[in-house]
Every structure is written in C-alpha cells, then in structure tokens.
C-alpha cells in the first residue's frame, strides 16, 4: 500500500490514497489559511469514525435501528507535550435500544482498528530519497 503526499503551497498538505484526496491546512494563527482540517484533527476524527463504523456493523448485524444513535469524544491533552492523553468515547443510545446489547455495543466500539493500532503502534521509518537521473 502506498500513499502519496503533496505540498501545494502555504501550510497545505494533501494526501492521495485509494483514489481519495484528503486536504489539510493549518489555522490562520499558525500561518495557514484555515481552509481544511489540521492533520491532527483528522487523526482524532479517525478514532471516532472508526469506532462508529464498528457500531454500525454491530447494529446492522442485529437489525437494531440506529435512529437517534450518536457518539461524542472528549480529549484531554497534556499541557506540556500538547499530546492527547485520554480519549473518552460516549455512545448515546436511542430510546428503546435493547438492554441486553448495552455492554456488547461498547465492546464493538473498542474493536476499532485505529484504537488497536495505538495500543500496538507500528514502527515508523522516515528516510529521504533523491530523484534518479
């Protein structure tokens, strides 16, 4: 698998992967134009959307209606490192959600691949290359 990352100008950085383009920018306070989410915001969003899709699979496989189902994520950052130290995911169940599935839907959200990747992080290797002549 390969992702291409391009630098179109300013603080904007764009990735292309699996036929999709993801644009990022920095806020104006950091010299960007604020035209797109910051990369770290996309990382945090990936946690919520990943857990969310596992909930969707769970509900679909049991024919549980998802009307009124939602989630919120709250982030606690370390003041010194500026890194998120805690992510609290709260699943808001709609009225009538089957009581017998309350714990199971939490387990489904915990299966999120992004979460599991953080618990067992990959090795990240950074190198440079020059164009061949």
From TrEMBL:
UniProt xrefs under SUPFAM superfamilies: OsmC-like
InterPro entries: KH_dom-like_a/b, OsmC/Ohr_fam, OsmC/Ohrsf
Protein name, entry field: Osmotically inducible protein C
Source species of the chain: Desulfosarcina widdelii
